[in-house]
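Researcher: Here's a chain I'd like modeled. Treat it as a single chain, no partners, no ligands.
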Amino acid sequence: MSQSNPISRDLRLVATGDSLIFQRISIFKEKGFLKVREIVKDADVAFNNFETIIPGDKGVPRYKTDPTAWMTSPRYVLDELLWMGFNMFSLANNHSMDYGEGGLLETKYVFEKAGVMNAGTGRTLSEARLPVYINTEKGRVALVAVNTLGDDIPAGEPRGKVSGRPGINPLRFRQKILLEKSEFDKLAEINSKLGLPGPRDNRLSFLGNVVELSDKNDIHTEPYGPDLEGNLKSIEEARRNADYVFVSIHNHEKLRPGMMYFDDTIEYTAKFVEVFCRKAIDAGADAILGHGAHCLNGIDIYDGHPIFYGIGNFVSQNYSSNPKPYDWYEARGLHKEAYPDESKGSLYPALEGEAEKRRVRRLSTSVVAKVEFRDKRAREILLYPVEMNRREAQGGRPFLATGASAEEILERLARLSRDYGTKIVVENGVGKINL
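Model: Modeled as a single isolated chain. Structure tokens:
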């Protein structure tokens, strides 16, 4: 009688951030680019956030009150990322519903038809929140994917005669503004002058925000209860059914929610995200894979498990190759031009001097994280610095950074990670965390 070989418990995870991919990348043969591909393909499971959609001729662009971008890509971009070596994707992000329910469901259909593991979206909330699984020779791997963005795009459950709603798996949050007495009294006076309700039980409402009297000035955020509870249940279910459980979180909310995007606060994660990530570990997650800010955030090691708050971009191609609806041009005053100059079309004005240089550098640099699991526990993390030239017409693909560029990327990540007590050692242009 033959005996099967025991399953090895040594798994290699490669985690990357956001792919805004609209063009082919497999045609390029530069050494630095192919080195990144080698790192990805060396993994047992390789994760990426697919931050675009493949609507085909399904769906129409939905109206947005904040017309920053609509994403749409040709079908072949999935083949490009599979060529790169990825086999595990999150589809839950703020662009998942750019072309409404039709675009979301067609994108999911493309992934399912290709047999590619994807999580975070669905025809109902239950489906969007479900763990998805992939079997490897190193064990069964589960993924739960959540998105903190967009109160208008969450999936919904059926109830009685009311159908469910396609959408994303949400992790919404609630916030309140805390003010010292002198500032609280000033705001109460403003409310009075505007004819708005005054304080009640040391609380008042101002322009949709809850404001509370406190001994300090601060903004407090916490996960929305039903979303927190539902996602922790999904993680617990995954823990019962898999050898490894990973949680993807797409998040733009920073330490000060609502601040201008791409200012200096972008490197620091909102408190409600930290709360969720640690509770997710407590519920059974082996690692948290964060993305969405399009720049690096710190790495936390919680109870021996890595939390990547922001891995940054992986592919960040030129937006001019991404077709856009009329609303995008109108918001930028380009709708009357026969051939719009998209270089004039940013809603985010250029910052001054060094601030602008920092913003461009953040957007065009990141890491590829390799996590080595032995005996089903994370034991070592290697951080490969990458950079991409987003200015070129065919730019945006990742290259392995070297020399001073690699040092700067890793030093920045080390600085951000020190806030969580995490030490990154740099050896030969690669960051290393021993667990």
